Amino acid sequence: xxxxxxxxxxxxxxxxxxxxxxxxxxxxxxxxxxxxxxxxxxxxxxxxxxxxxxxxxxxxxxxxxxxxxxxxxxxxxxxxxxxxxxxxxxxxxxxxxxxxxxxxxxxxxxxxxxxxxxxxxxxxxxxxxxxxxxxxxxxxxxxxxxxxxxxxxxxxxxxxxxxxxxxxxxxxxxxxxxxxxxxxxxxxxxxxxxxxxxxxxxxxxxxxxxxxxxxxxxxxxxxxxxxxxxxxxxxxxxxxxxxxxxxxxxxxxxxxxxxxxxxxxxxxxxxxxxxxxxxxxxxxxxxxxxxxxxxxxxxxxxxxxxxxxxxxx
Length: 313
What we know:
By secondary structure, this protein is of the alpha+beta class. Helix content is 45%, strand content 21%. It contains eleven helices and 13 strands. 29% of the residues are buried.
């Protein structure tokens, strides 16, 4: 998706790099109560809820945030996040990023925007956000140009969502509405045992019709789409929690670790254990390490981002 746009403009034989800086991009997962402070973010703050639920300050009141809810705060906007027990369960997972620069300011001003909006958690969007986080956290050979490409692509892709939603409504029949219902059901239940029959029943379709329609409209089978959601969640739990790999496999809907190991390696070209080992080797305790008198960044987070994020604990 990111190759559709560029952050380099070729004018009169010169290359101008867009003014766009990413201070942090990561995945946050909570199973215990958590509250941020009321300190306004010094950057643009994006949060995309993908698992569970929480509450956040939106337009002056605390609102329920569920999978598919995207929050965008401007620098200085009041911000407060609370992960608490909802419907007898504490669980919240979200992607977040902090950025600034004249490009993002122009993007924000280009059209009316709301602090909270609901978007579709399709595999392409999650993959783009995940790739941005991976690039930001590279310890060696970090590529600022690619990071800007990915961040621009993410923002411009968000702009397309309302347009696509309108065009779907103009098509004959209810096909796209049914796809949206099936995706919503999968997004909310992917980490639990899930049958194709359940997805079809939720949309009010026969299994054969649901399977054909989903593949035709998304390019994924229902199983493939479910697998992408599960793998994305598993990867983030490997990176950002200390849960055992066996627990992660079970919690993300894979049943057995051997099956999880097989599909994970097929998708990412590396085993879950290798990912965990590399993280342990490359990221010692602390966000920065002092070596040869120099401060070396390990996590991809700027010092300003770390100061802001640490106030949330």
